[in-house]
TrEMBL record:
Responsible for the formation of the pyrimidine heterocycle in the thiamine biosynthesis pathway. Catalyzes the formation of hydroxymethylpyrimidine phosphate (HMP-P) from histidine and pyridoxal phosphate (PLP). The protein uses PLP and the active site histidine to form HMP-P, generating an inactive enzyme. The enzyme can only undergo a single turnover, which suggests it is a suicide enzyme. This is Thiamine pyrimidine synthase. Pathway: Cofactor biosynthesis; thiamine diphosphate biosynthesis. Residues 9-152 form the SsuA/THI5-like domain. One of its GO terms (biological process) is thiamine biosynthetic process. It comes from Staphylococcus saccharolyticus. The lineage of its organism: Bacteria, Bacillati, Bacillota, Bacilli, Bacillales.
Length: 252
């Protein structure tokens, strides 16, 4: 599989009940952590990285895994867990607060976890080549839709609610839609540096064995009309010029 456009970027991480004496990631030690797939490694990998970024030490058994599927708010509301991951600012945080929970969250990006609360379009390398023109049209439609949402939010909400039969008189529904609308991205591209950092973190927490070239699983080639032309010509970037061969012309 290969990604070819990002269309949503929200904030998220570990939601915690403030009434459980949790104020920083180190306070998660000894607590119950809800995450889908528990007691598998995914949720504890996020917590481990955050705890260590906060100056703590993490060892196996320092957390009690809880599996309440994707029902994070329910797990905290019914005292099945003290914290939950992965949650999104535009969804679970709003949901939990609407139900009276005293919650906050530790953001991935603030505690050394790659900021992977993003949604992308994916396909196969074969279909990327075969359906290039159709995929480019999909990208254009996505960009136009995002532009419309940004400039006509209330109209966009009405269209969405009619199409999905969502009751927007419900305040939580309305708040969630509005918060999510702010997460659609104008820039659909992503950097190979981001994906390299993500895969190095996955290797660090033993989720993968060997990193690969990031361009093999995400490409910007459908987003920029001169992408292929540039890749087929000698690079003019400063970093590609050997220091010994740099002249004044390279620096201006």
């Amino acid at each position: 599989m290969i990604g070819f456009a990002r269309y949503l970027h929200t904030n998220g991480g570990i939601m915690y009940n403030k009434d459980k004496d949790i104020t920083r990631p180190k306070d998660l030690i000894g607590k119950r952590l809800q995450y889908p797939g528990a007691p598998g490694p995914d949720g504890t990998a996020i917590a481990k990285t955050m705890i260590e970024a906060d100056g703590g030490t993490f060892k196996k058994g320092y957390l009690t895994p809880v599996n309440n599927s994707f029902y994070h708010t329910d797990a905290l509301l019914n005292d099945k867990a003290d914290a939950a991951t992965l949650v999104f600012e535009n969804f679970e945080i709003l949901e939990a607060k609407s139900q009276g929970l005293n919650v906050d969250y530790f953001s991935l990006k603030n505690y050394n976890v790659p900021d992977f609360c993003q949604l992308i379009f994916i396909t196969t390398p074969e279909k990327l080549a075969t359906y290039e023109s159709k995929l480019k049209r999909l990208i254009k439609v996505t960009q136009k839709a995002t532009h419309y949402i940004n400039h006509h939010l209330e109209d966009a909400i009405d269209i969405y609610s009619m199409f999905t039969q969502t009751d927007v008189t419900n305040q939580l529904n309305k708040d969630t839609i509005k918060a999510t609308a702010q997460c659609f991205t104008n820039d659909l591209s992503m950097s190979s540096d981001y994906y390299n950092d993500l895969q190095l973190w996955l290797k660090e927490v033993n989720e993968i064995k060997v990193p690969i070239t990031p361009s093999l699983y995400f490409t910007n080639q459908l987003l920029f009309s001169r992408y292929m032309k540039l890749s087929n010509t000698p690079s003019l970037y400063l970093n590609d010029v050997h220091p010994k061969n740099r002249t004044h012309d390279h620096l201006t």
